[in-house]
Specification:
By secondary structure, the chain is of the alpha+beta class. The protein is 25% helix and 30% strand. The strands form two sheets. Strands 1-2-3-10-5-8 form a six-stranded antiparallel β-sheet. Bound molecules: fe (ii) ion (FE2).
Length: 199
């Protein structure tokens, strides 16, 4: 259970992410926005935390270009449960540098069907290899400039505020340089996380 003031802070984060994904203009973005707004009135539950992105989270939120929503993520830190992102073909040393938390979805702090919305933190100098999965996905860059590739497009930097879309099964990758990265992500369609594999 969250204290009322904690729940207010958490709901403010959900509302900010809803606003961002609604800007996508895609069915999946609208689905995520609707689920995030509905989640504001639904019970909160703890997840199984297996990792802790601090003090990395603090340093990424302090980056000069970080969006204001980064401060909401920091404020929610005590009640967001993180795990290392693992998947088929992902090297253990890369996985150790990636932290994910599902906020809304089948495994999230707020239960929902048909959509997953969460946060992702990546350490600096981390090459998240080209990979694919069943879920149709959009990432929202909150802090840190990372380089992304989608399909045949070469790696290109994406700054805070960018929305990067990955259709289902389309190969995509992300590498960080000197800066760590914080983003939000949403999945729709086939939500099977085990469909992930490195190309
Ligand atoms: Fe992805």
């Amino acid at each position: 259970m969250l204290q009322p003031n904690e729940r207010t802070t958490f709901n403010t984060l959900l509302a900010a992410l809803a606003e961002a994904f609604a800007l996508e203009g895609r069915d999946g973005g609208n689905l995520a926005a609707t689920a995030l707004r509905a989640a504001m009135g639904q019970p909160y539950r703890r997840a199984h935390a297996t990792s802790d992105p601090d003090p990395l989270l603090e340093s990424v939120c302090a980056l000069r270009e970080a969006l204001p929503v980064a401060q909401l993520v920091l404020a929610c830190r005590p009640f967001i449960d993180w795990a290392h992102w693992e998947g088929e073909g992902l090297a253990a040393d890369v996985s150790a540098r990636l932290y994910t938390a599902e906020l809304v979805g089948p495994d999230g702090h707020i239960a929902a069907e048909g959509v997953r919305v969460g946060l992702l933190v990546s350490d600096a100098v981390t090459d998240y290899p080209v990979s694919s999965h069943s879920g149709e996905e959009t990432h929202y860059v909150i802090a840190g400039v990372a380089e992304w590739t989608v399909g045949d497009m070469p790696y290109a930097p994406q700054a805070p505020g960018a929305l990067i879309h990955h259709p289902a099964w389309v190969l995509h990758g992300r590498r960080t340089g000197s800066e760590p990265f914080l983003g939000a992500w949403r999945w729709s369609g086939d939500l099977d996380l085990s469909s992930f594999s490195v190309a």
